[in-house]
Amino acid sequence: MVKMLLGKVVGRLVATQKLHAFTGVKFLLVQPLNSHQKPQGDILVACDSVQAGEGDLVFFATGREASFPLPDPFNPSDATITAIVDQVNREL
Amino acid sequence: MILGIVTGSVVATVKDKTYLGHKILMVQPVDQHNKPFGTEVLAIDKVQAGAGDRVLVMTEGNSARQLLNCDTIPTNMVITGIVDDIET
């Protein structure tokens, strides 16, 4: 199932040789979190569309939809950070 | 489509511009007996659901884009209904 998840940026990745569609796109390492903000699942590499940085709590989209926020619409991204989370209101 | 229980909400100021005006809720997928499974996910709310509601979540991108009337919104999870009852 493709998902939208909460995550924490834990690092960045630099690649010089990359596809043209990724020119100008920042890659970040993201640890998916649950709503208690505890790590859940494996670290992944996500493209960044909101200028997030290390330590930020973010929200990322996966699957085909991850390609929409990037400048070149024909890119093969399968995870993209789409928002920087200010607050998580856990009510249950 | 999956069943889920809304566990909270998420606030973000810096976000993709297509998200403007949409509420983002945190949803725990559950089975027909309300037993949680899998990881908690985030979904855009179209039905004014709130914490504790059992909801129907669309998990397919193309339907999500049609529902939200936007071709470029990066989402594949939309809350499309509040479940009243399930018969098994």
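qc> Chain A has a mean pLDDT of 93.
qc> done
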